[in-house]
From TrEMBL:
Pfam families from the UniProt entry: NLPC_P60
Family: Belongs to the peptidase C40 family.
Alphabetically ordered keywords of this record: Hydrolase, Protease, Thiol protease
Protein name: NlpC/P60 domain-containing protein
Hydrolase found in the keyword field: yes
Domain NlpC/P60: 8-136
Segments passing through the bilayer: none
Amino acid sequence: MSASVQAKPTTPHVTKFAHKYVSVRYVWGGSTPRGFDCSGFTKYCFQRFGIRLPRASWEQGKMGTPVKKEKARPGDLIFFRGKINKGSQIQHVGIITDVDRGRIRFIHSITNKGVRYDWLSVSYYQKRMLGIRRVLKV
């Protein structure tokens, strides 16, 4: 992959680039196509377009502008708490790829599955969602 940076990244650029990595294995602390963890994946995808994100998901949760679920769009970051954590600490992040009549699909790197798509409507994710943030300027 070329490491060149585009002048004005757009949603299709970021989501199309992220799609290239579907099925790449999960590696804790991974941030390359050899293996990604969740925040390593988002950082890698956005960095390709000149947008620097912090390494940790909880730090990425401070970037950009908060967005209500009803206003979400492709390219936004979506954040979740972990399986055990019942509080409001961010422990997982993905990139929204599709919004269709209120249904939100996102791509992320998850333990034992690697990079894949999931729907927010799945109760596992619905219960754990903490917020959405927009880092792409439109």
